[in-house]
Amino acid sequence: MSNEKSDEPARLGNLLLQTGVALIKSGAGSSRIITNLSRFANAYGYEANVDLGTRNISISLHKEKRGNIFSGSRSIATLPGANFRVISVISRLSWDVMEKKISLEEYAKVINQVPDIPTYKRHVILFFTGIAGSAFCYTFGGNAMEMVLTFLATVVGLFFKQELVIKKYNPFMITYGSAMLASAVIALCGKILGAATNLDHAFATSILFLIPGVLLINSFVDLMDGHIINGIDRGTNALMHAFAIASGLAIVLYIFKML
Amino acid sequence: MMPDWLEIIFKAFWCGCAAIGFAVLFNTPPRALLAIFLGGILAGLFKFTVLLPEVGGGIIMASAAGAAAIGFASIPVSHWRHVPPVVISIPAVIPLIPGSFAYRTMLGLISFINQTEAEVLTATAHNGAMTFFIILAISLGVTLPMLLFRIESVKKVNYSVPFRGRRKIRREKL
Predict the structure, then answer these.
(1) CA closest to A34 among chain B residues
(2) Residue B172 pLDDT exceeds 80
(3) Which of A21, A182, A234, B3 is positioned for an S-S bond with A157, CB 3.0–4.6 A?
(4) Quick check: A228 and A157 in contact, CB under 8 A?
(5) What is the C-alpha to C-alpha distance for residues A223 and A48, in angstroms, rounded to an integer?
């Protein structure tokens, strides 16, 4: 029993690191991660000091009037993506820990299930993102035909992107390739339909599914919260994605002599 | 020609569709999807109403208004759907992202390789500044409730009370 008590900080620390990594990977903002982790640590009577990057996390735990009783860090191999189901599960868990005082075992059980959290079926994602593309096209002033083309281009581009993600390509190359393919679909349809058709809206909106929206908003939120380095990090990441999109689009426009 | 209000409703509806699409792309829990759809509609209504010539708010004000509406709405709604507010607010503001300004900025930068006229540069700089300020306005709008009420947790926000009557608020997980 006493043995269990003494290794509690280490177990809690490792769970916190796992939680932090899961939150970073699913695209939570820096303040949100720190708030959640402190909530967990406080519930078990510890204070957590978190050093947070966008690809690494270090946590030190200490109890009042006692020195450091746990330090650990983790680094993350990939750039963060977006998975809001993970954020919801962990947020829910943090309230369970705070209010129902669930044990470390139960906490560990939920955290270990995080990698198995289901995603939407692939065709569902493709369909809804296609709808989002044509919705953008409408709000930008596109007509019905452009909306259909945007749907098609988004579905083809996103399918390609998912394939590349499975094959673990560089994320910026994935964005570049998908932007190229999506705009190539529009350009080809333009060629088939003849030169008289103006597809500007379709071009502008066919690549919008690649816009790193979570990164952009998190970047500014981090800057506002005073996590300047993380804000700049995310902002630069978003900018590189934007440049990848621009280059993909530029190549297609150049090939089809539209620029 | 559609009357203005009808066009606003159409555009707002499609904003909602875009929000849902991105919610699915970000793997949002299914229980939040309806709230995100309504949030996207709300953002669209605010944005395109402020953009009307009668109101004359300009695109930056319009985006900020839409985002702030979502920022405030996301707090009671996150109680309702048991998800953190960011899960609702981020997909719902995605339709406000200035895609066309960003697109024109990128194309402008690329065309600056061949065309060295000052007009290309000024137009590109203008589009770039608009992109930057609109995104700034969106993120400010979304975080506005957090900044105003110095919220650490949405469970402690008082204005969720009217949504449940004056009854005792059930303590629910967010």
Answers:
(1) B152
(2) no
(3) A182
(4) no
(5) 22
- What pLDDT is stored for residue B110 in this prediction? 80
A49: β partners: A60
Report how far residue A246's alpha carbon sits from residue A242's, in angstroms, rounded to the nearest whole number: 6
Helix (H, G, I), strand (E, B) or coil at A121: coil
**Phi, psi (deg, nearest 5) at residue A59:** -130, 130
Residue B11, phi then psi, degrees to nearest 5: -65, -40
How many other CB atoms sit within 10 Å of the CB of residue A197?
15
Distance between CA atoms of A174 and A209, rounded to whole angstroms? 13
User: DSSP class of residue B170?
Assistant: P
Spatial CB neighbours of B83, under 8 Å, sequence gap ≥ 6: A84, A88, A91, B28, B29, B31, B32, B174
- Provide the ipTM: 0.86
Residue B139 has its nearest CB partner, among A86, A95, A224, at A224
- Best of B90, B109, B154 to substitute, by most chain A Cβ atoms within 10 angstroms, is B90
Q: A54-63, A227-236, B2-11, B34-43: lowest mean pLDDT where?
A: B2-11
pTM of the model: 0.84
Structure tokens at A7: 């290794």
User: How far from A253 is each of A31, A148, A169, A190, B127, CA to CA, in Å?
Assistant: 41, 20, 24, 12, 20
- Residues of chain A contacting B29 with CB distance shorter than 8 Å: 84-85, 88
List beta partners, residue A51: A58
A135 contact residues in B (CB cutoff 8 A)? 14-18, 21, 95
Q: Which of A88, A134, A137, A236 to mutate to test the interface with B (most CBs of B within 10 A)?
A: A88
Angle between helices B33-51 and B85-93 (to 10 degrees): 50
Strands (E), chain A: 47-52, 56-62, 68-75
Question: Any idea how long chain B is?
Answer: 174
d(CA A92, CA B154): 13
Sequential pLDDT tens for chain A (259 residues): 445 566 788 888 999 999 999 999 888 889 889 988 988 888 888 888 899 988 899 999 888 777 778 888 998 887 778 889 999 999 888 888 888 888 888 888 888 888 888 888 999 999 999 999 999 888 888 888 889 999 999 999 999 999 999 898 999 999 999 999 999 999 888 888 876 667 788 888 888 889 888 888 889 888 888 899 999 999 999 989 988 998 898 888 888 876 5
